[in-house]
Amino acid sequence: MLNLNQQELKKLDFNKAEYEYFIENCNFTERQKEIIDLRRKGKSIIEISLEINISERTINREIKTIKHKIYKII
């Protein structure tokens, strides 16, 4: 079904079909969706942190949670 490599998952770099599938099936929070969208646009952790005004540590924790939710369904 879905065949993500580690680099794609690290960057949260999905094609449109994968992105829509994950958004529909992973029960992401609004913050997690925002982080995914910003990562898909090529933003770094620091840039995301500054843009949405939360710490880099929180961003990294959210990304870890996002990956965990994705792993549960693939």
Q: How does this model look, in words?
A:
The chain is an all-alpha fold. It has 5 helices and no strands. Helix 4 crosses helix 5. The chain starts with 5 loop residues before the first helix and ends with a helix.
Cα-based radius of gyration, to the nearest Å: 12 Å
- Would you count the extended β strands for me? 0
Shape: globular
Reported for the largest beta sheet, the result is:
none
Structural class: mainly alpha
Query: Which spans have pLDDT < 50 for at least 5 consecutive residues?
Result: none
Oligomer: single chain
**What separation lies between the terminal Cα atoms?**
8 Å
Q: Number of helical segments?
A: 5
Which percent range describes the beta-strand content? Answer: under 5%
| Order of helix and strand elements from N to C terminus | HHHHH
What is the typical, i.e. mean, pLDDT?
A: 90
Range of helix content: over 70%
Question: Gist?
Answer:
This protein has 74 residues and is mainly α.
Topology of this protein?
Elements: H1 6-11, H2 16-25, H3 30-40, H4 45-52, H5 56-73
Helix pairs in contact: 3-5, 4-5
Fill in the keyword field for this structure.
mainly alpha; 74 residues
